[in-house]
Amino acid sequence: MRDPYTVLGVSRTASEKEIKFAYRKLAKTWHPDQNKSDPKAQAKFAEATVAYDLLSDKQKRSQFDRGEIDAEGRPKMPGFDFSGFPGAGARRQGNPGAGFSAEDILKDFMGGFGSFSSAEGPMGMRMGGARFTQAGGRGQDFAATLRVSLEQAQARAPVAVKLPSGRMVSVKLPDEVADGQQIRLKGQGGAPPTGGPAGDVLVTVKFDKHKRFRLDAHDMRVDVPIRLDEAVLGAKLRVPTLDGPVDLNIPPGVDTAKSLRLKGKGLYGKGDLYVTLAIVLPKSGDPDLEALMRFWREQKPYKVRDEE
What we know:
The protein is an alpha+beta fold. About 25% of the residues lie in helices and about 20% in strands. The protein is elongated and about 90 Å long.
């Protein structure tokens, strides 16, 4: 990850107020709920959230400035675990000198986007209750579920998540991540009281239900409405895909009972996109169309059902 000061666009001498203002501005601009089809914006939001989480914590900021931890809060000194340092995590335990968490700031302006619960991070990271004591002096493993949109999976976009420890990290999705796949975040679990190695966080990826696409393995399906004249005469339509809209030629007299296939436009380019067309008539009715249909019924009937 980049230098957190650079990410937030502030100087190393910036005050807590300046850091909070910079993050608030970036979060409003890049929040996923305002950029649902832009994985780059989601990645910028994730990066800004991780940067703010570090700089808003006085202790972590001091450790970073001294070169003791990296931009994601990981110790740079071998054999020293800063997660057990006195006061670590104080921000979430009510220490007034530790600043405000990213979640606190997001709550200030997220009224229109929904609310956060203490068990869910800003990108849908839901903490599981499972904890596992490890043999050999290791810390506990934690289980969590990460909700991911199809756009995020397609773009392999970094996702900002809050771990069970309360720490924010940026997780890069694996290539071609699958629904139900488990990601192991090594060393991000509980720290043992004896000072041994920390446990892991076992994250299970779950795909969010998409408002337009239906997923079938790597294939996807989408419904596209068309007018009656487009079905009869043919047309060129703009059809949505995970990589942006593409043109689809509709042949004259198209059979809407069959789906049209866009090869290679499924998930990760491995599957196809099947487009189902649905003829939509004018909502308020149309006298000319009705007159034409009466003429057609009387003068040009044709059979479409076996019982006719």
